[in-house]
Amino acid sequence: MNKGKKLYEGKAKILYGTKDKDLIIQHFKDDATAFNNLKKSSVEGKGVLNNRISEHILSNLSQCGIKTHFIKRLNMREQLIKKAEIFPIEFIVRNIATGSLTKRLGIPEGTVLNKPLLEYCFKKDDLNDPLISKEHIFSFEWATEEDIKEIDKMTLRINDILIGLFRGIGIKLVDFKIEYGKTWNKDTEKKEIVLADEISPDTCRLWDSKTEKKLDKDRFRKDLGNIIQGYQEVARRLGIMPEETNISEVNFGKTIPIKFKKK
Ligand code: 5GP
């Protein structure tokens, strides 16, 4: 599949058109940003790992009946996805209190929530992606009540599946952000809601179950170092590692060359 023109460049990804108007190529960059672009860096190998981890997670979700935009991984940094009209909303799920929740409401860090907490943020960098209510969503017609009902159900199901997937490899799924879009389904000739964007250590908080060591983008946000090692640890435990790459695996201090699995 040949890359067409660049359609959009975000902080961590670039989208390219293809010959097929319904298909897009999603390219994962190594760029890392935090605090609405105030902190920027390049983390070598991050894009390769996120491409592979997101492929793995979205494929697993798809096998559990969740509709996603993902079609196939094309190479180390790129995947073929369905074109979707993205809702201008970030859907956040929290299982354990940390991050902006603790700052905003003073909930003690690490509090295990009685049930998953769903939050909505307006996707608007200039405004720092502000927290919004469902009423804002309906008032400004960012999605319909029907859409949100379906999305909330999908989101809770995704959370259940991912909690299990990560628990199996000794990782706590603390919280995560997902996005949804609408795509055209040729078979049903109707638009349908699909999970879009990515699910990776860039978009989730993942803590080692025993030590609570952070294996996600908080290593970058909080200057904890060993960022790529955290992402590699997630990929290693998921049983996936990208094909040939020059990233070497530093196992928290000890450098070991990676053995790669061919797909
Ligand atoms: P918080 O609101 O505590 O900063 O983030 C909650 C969760 O959503 C975290 O897992 C965080 O990684 C994810 N998240 C929230 N907003 C964004 C965003 O703009 N980009 C990315 N990559 N993740 C986000």
**Straight-line N-to-C gap:** 18 Å
Provide a count of the helices: 6
General form? globular
* CATH-level-4 superfamily name of the domain at 88-208: ATP-grasp fold, B domain
Largest sheet: 7 strands, antiparallel
Order of helices and strands: EEEEEHEEEEHEEHHEEEHHEE
Helix content: 25-40%
User: Which stretches of 5+ consecutive residues score pLDDT under 50?
Assistant: 248-263
Q: Structural class per helix/strand content?
A: alpha+beta
CATH-defined fold name of the domain at 88-208: D-amino Acid Aminotransferase, Chain A, domain 1
As a percent range, the share of strand residues is 25-35%
Give every kind of bound small molecule, once each. guanosine-5'-monophosphate
Count all strands and give the number.
Answer: 16
CATH architecture of the domain at 88-208: 2-Layer Sandwich
What is the mean predicted local confidence, pLDDT? 92
Concise summary:
With 263 residues, this protein is an alpha+beta fold. It is built from 6 helices and 16 strands.
Core attributes:
263 residues, alpha+beta, D-amino Acid Aminotransferase, Chain A, domain 1, 7-stranded antiparallel sheet, 5-stranded antiparallel sheet, 16 strands, globular, binds guanosine-5'-monophosphate
